[in-house]
Amino acid sequence: MEPRDYRIEQSRSITTELPGPKSAELKERCERAVSAAVNPGLPGYVVDADGGIIVDEDGNRWIDFGSGIAVTSVGASHPAVVKAVQDAVSHFTHTCFMVSPYESYVKVAEILNHITPGDFDKKTVLLNSGAEAVENAVKIARAYTKRNGVVVFDNAYHGRTNLTMAMTAKNKPYKTGFGPFASEVYRAPMSYPARDGLSGEEAAQRTIRMMEKEVGAQNLACVVIEPIQGEGGFIVPAEGFLPTIAQWCKDNGVVFVADEVQAGLCRTGKWFSVEWFDVVPDLITTAKGIAGGMPLSAVTGRAEIMDAPVSGGLGGTYGGNPVAASAAVAALGVMRDEKLADRALEIEKIIREVLEPLTDSGRVLEVRGHGAMIALEFVDANGKPDAQLTADVAGACKAKGVQILTCGMDANVIRLLPPLVIGEDTLRDGLQVLAEEIRSRV
């Protein structure tokens, strides 16, 4: 991993009680002003971030293993993105592409059409969030197929809007108290090698039987799947699972949608995680890392499918905002020029070197994932999910200056999503803290 220049010292440093006095004051203000349903995880209010480090109001520094949930892949203040935003905002902040179009929207679409898998004509629509991208992918599939049914999977996470809550598997905190949800959404079993013991083909046939018997191909508009599941636990399906499902979709006129919101854009060591499985989706949704931290998302896919909705049927006031689109052009250029997919593989090699020996404890079920999207699943002495151990480790790491995120249907997975521009020394220091906290408890 080649070193690079950073604005901020790339080391962790906790110099106050947590939260520090300034962050504690902000925490009190937050509790008075912000809905209690919004629950920040870091014990500090951030004022600066660069490379692999985030800094709070009191000067405490954390090693960032979260990247704003896979958003700041190129770093939270990459100079190229900062310049692109500054240049764009100096001209105009907004016009609404549907009313007064501009080049940056078109340029992002051209880049996505080029880098997404598939040797066929493609088109793109730009939106605001991952959930909005997923909703629009379903709309597009329904318009194209003239069918209504949507199949999603166990452990899936697709967003917090009404339709995407129906598509998301986990009840609390994402769905509880928010129903009723959108109809015509059906949940299929997912390949989960660490738990189900099935081959990819066996798991796929189980899924196909469900789709044929419980939904019917003739009623199904699309199958929507995260090639590597995110919030559900960074679950990597067994070899052969995705190709078999994709082929069934092709044979039955069902649109195959890859939700790449968390796993896409160099995060797993390829432009898109679906490339690890030799599958070419009909539609791909992207968001998170696409614009270096600015809010932007997209649906990209086969031109004939993307053109199926009526004229004016896609869009939105802020979708493809010119400042966010300019940031995306810059961020995607950084990913290409700095070879961040290759860097993600270097990050994976270091993570596995440090953490895979922990599986010998019997309490780390496995270290799984690709690139800079790696997870550790924790179990108790009886092999059952251990949410308490997971929470204890994550909390201890934060107290020592390492930002850690958790996930999983059973809240027993630690996920690692470092910025792809993190330095090796910083990465190794954070991993050593994590490894030590695990060893002290197992």
Oligomer: single chain
Radius of gyration: 21 Å
The outline comes out as globular
The percent range for helix content is: 25-40%
Biggest sheet features: 7 strands, mixed
How many β-strands, per DSSP? 15
Number of helices: 14
Provide a quick synopsis of the model.
The chain is α/β, with parallel strands linked by helices and 442 residues long. It has helices spanning 21-33, 67-70, 79-89, 103-115, 130-145, 162-167, 193-196, 200-215, 241-251, 303-306, 322-337, 340-355, 387-399, 424-439, and strands spanning 46-50, 53-56, 61-64, 122-127, 149-153, 185-188, 220-225, 255-259, 283-286, 297-302, 364-370, 373-378, 402-403, 405-407, 413-416.
Give an account of the 3D structure.
The chain has 442 residues and is an alpha/beta fold. It is 36% helix and 16% strand. It is built from 14 helices and 15 strands. The strands form three sheets. The protein has a seven-stranded mixed beta sheet, with helices on both faces. A four-stranded mixed beta sheet has the order 1-2-3-13. It has a four-stranded antiparallel beta sheet with strand order 11-12-15-14. Helix 3 runs antiparallel to helix 11 (322-337), helix 4 (103-115) runs parallel beside helix 11 and helix 8 (200-215) runs parallel beside helix 9. The longest helix is centred in the N-terminal third of the chain and has 16 residues, at 130-145.
